[in-house]
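Issue: ligand-bound run for magnesium ion - logging full I/O for the record.

Environment: standard queue, default settings, no custom constraints.

Inputs:
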Amino acid sequence: MPRKGLKLSLWCVCAVLKTVSAPFLHRSVMGTSLSFPSLEPSICRSPSASFRRSRMRFRQSLASLGFAPWWPFFLTFAFWKLSWLCGPYYCMAESEGFVVYDTNTFALARDPQGRTLITFEDDSAQILLSRTLGRGAFSKVKFGLRTFTDESGRHEDQYAVKKMHKLSLEKNRCSVYDDEGIPAIANNLEKVRMEISIWRQLCHPNVVRLYEVLDSAEEDYMFLILEYADSGQIMTWDTAKQRYVHSAALLSALSGPLEAVARFVFRQVAEALLYLHTLPRPVIHRDVKPDNILYTSKTHQVKLTDFTVARQLPTAEALCWDSAGTTAFLAPESMISGTPYSGQKFDAWAMGVSLYAFMSEGKLPFWDPEHELHMQLMIQNDEPEYQTGWSEPLDKLVKGLLCKDPERRTTLEEFLASSWHNE
Ligand SMILES: Nc1ncnc2c1ncn2[C@@H]1O[C@H](COP(=O)(O)OP(=O)(O)OP(=O)(O)O)[C@@H](O)[C@H]1O
Ligand SMILES: [Mg+2]
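Outputs:
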């Protein structure tokens, strides 16, 4: 058989197998109720659910008309291919076995205490936003309690809800670069939409899950419904002390030497980053810092969050053109304007800065709050002060991650393979 024909038949077999297994795969994921138990009632307003319902009705009517049993599979395949052509959202949800819901029918109200209440038209669920978990430049992250009632009674689930004012985002102009390094002017709303389009593709135990996007033309605010990390950031910046302070919840949950806690935290950070970097279209986080590394005591896991400045590359070899993130965590090579740099090595450097701070009582390796330019020069030319109390493998790792030459810098794979993790 000619090579082209063989390839085509193989592709057809794979496509049929994928199509046949997709409904079962999806059902088993939803059935386990492990990854996404609480938003299940909202399935009735998701496009994926309505598609599944119509697919079932279609199969039933075909059977009543006496069509052969393989017909539904053929039609499913045609539908699947069509949805794939129409956009990546449905394809991703069904083929990867997880769903990110898009909801554009909701209403905002206030409860008697003045707290925001999100209600949905087509089911009995509501989300009450209470205490603030954190603030970003253009967002507030609130604790959200979702309640809903079904045949088995009333249920409650906890989420972190990122609340953003669309008009304020739209008014704020910023520059973005495309894959070829061509600059363009955008606004922060476009940037947030880019963040959402990246985040909706991600499903990893060490990455905060995005469950649902609430965005309605009638409402000024948009909301991202996120997995809640109950213990918050692994370290919090103390402005008075000009250094980070370790999370008491993390240290008490992981009693033992600080180096053992660091091993527990940074192995998971490296795994999250490696997952992002090895996606078919790699994602570079570009804002790895303790503020964006969360700990959840419920599942005893570390989770990476905040994809505000993340960039998705077309290929594993593609480079980043624009510098983004937080100055103290920027890799030296990203500061040379007009020169592209490897995003994978950039994230490894930022993880090195975070690990250094974690092991140095929260002090940053390069820090000058008064003069940003001086801080940049320090990053490019100076060596940080290293502690003497660390083990030799850790010392080697931190120095390797903070190597100014990106070509010689310790990679995430080398970090994970290091003997430090097996001590
Ligand atoms: N899923 C979560 N669970 C618990 N706390 C969270 C969660 N997500 C965010 N937070 C808290 O809210 C803070 C701000 O969130 P995030 O970094 O996503 O916002 P941002 O607007 O992107 O911020 P930035 O200005 O850093 O880009 C975090 O540093 C953290 O303290
Ligand atoms: Mg942040």
